[in-house]
Design goal:
alpha+beta, 4 helices, 4-stranded antiparallel beta sheet
């Protein structure tokens, strides 16, 4: 009993996380600008580029890890799975903030998020990811999808690469601006990545999962 009271006293409301929760309840998605600072974006982008230039990325596939199939007609990005246990200094910054969000969601919304998986993603010019849901017939553990953009500050609308989320009310085109994070319900909202018309679209993409 004393321990429970102590935990309640420790809890501090986080206005940003509360906004995310309100957005998810009202519209099933949340767009947060500057979730990561420009300095944090810089170090994460450098981490991505170092590994990309070292040829550690692989062509992405469709399906989950136990049932993968490469299909360039559906998606064209290159990815590298992130390992939190062996993360570098930049990735520690990323996971620290994501873990704060997960802890807050579990304490306030009782979502039961027990696992997470994230990967770097690079979309070269001319690539895309067709409309889809982030869930599988043999695995429905993904609850929330998260995309964190690592592009340069000068990303233009003409570059393309928008994330389009299809809601009942509208088709929402979201530019991949640096530091911006988009969170949405994995099993509810279909979405796609529009064709990248110039430059390379860089992000970290992942999912918060139940057991």
């Amino acid at each position: 009993m004393t321990e429970e009271l102590f935990e309640q006293l420790e809890f501090v409301e986080n206005p940003l996380f509360e906004t995310i929760i309100d957005d998810l309840l009202q519209q099933q998605y949340s767009i947060v600008n500057d979730f990561f600072s420009s300095e944090e974006v810089d170090v994460l982008r450098n981490s991505l580029l170092a590994k990309y230039e070292a040829d550690r990325f692989k062509k992405s596939a469709i399906g989950n890890r136990t049932n993968e199939e490469i299909d360039k007609a559906i998606r064209g990005d290159f990815i590298l799975w992130m390992d939190e246990k062996n993360s570098n200094e930049a990735e520690n910054v990323f996971f620290r903030k994501i873990n704060e969000l997960v802890d807050y969601l579990n304490k306030t919304c009782f979502l039961g998020i027990l696992q997470k998986e994230f990967h770097y993603a690079v979309y070269p010019t001319g690539t895309f990811y067709k409309r889809h849901l982030d869930t599988f017939q043999n695995d429905d553990r993904r609850k929330l999808s998260i995309v964190c953009y690592l592009n340069e500050d000068n990303w233009l609308r003409e570059n393309g690469g928008e994330l389009t989320i299809y809601t009942e009310k509208e088709d929402l085109d979201i530019l991949p601006l640096p530091g911006r994070v988009v969170i949405f319900e994995s099993q509810v909202l279909e979405h796609e990545v529009k064709v990248v018309k110039a430059s390379e679209r860089m992000s970290i993409t992942g999912w918060l999962k139940t057991r």
